[in-house]
Here is the input.
Amino acid sequence: MRIGDVLKAKPSSEVITIGPDAGVRELIAKLAEHNVGALIVSSDGTSLDGIVSERDVVRHLHSDGTVINNTVRAIMTEVVQTCEQDAAVEELMKTMTESRIRHVPVVEDGRLIGIISIGDVVKHRIDQLEFERDQLDSYVHQT
Here is the structure.
């Protein structure tokens, strides 16, 4: 199975972005509004300037209580692990586990086309296991 298949199965293909000069308060509001754990940082909505997550907010808040008054640029991760839609889901699962990341932007020709979360990967794996179980059950009971 490929990442593109997981993207197609998502209820929405919308990728929520935030500008690097937006405030951390705006970031927190967007995370809550969209019920997501990370946002792509993009100055134009299609390029990838970085990624910022709830985890980034919490870690910076712990070390600097004034981070809430700062910009996204101050807390975002600039070097971002990405994948393409023809990448294997199993490879992305391995990358996410080894790198301890929960969100991976999907890019094609340098343009942002989606985002895959660990939840998307787990849902895909559960669906795959249920399908296999149903196939085996059907096979066993057809005799």
In short: The beta strands are 17-18, 38-41, 50-53, 103-108, 111-117. Residues 118-141 form the longest helix (24 residues).
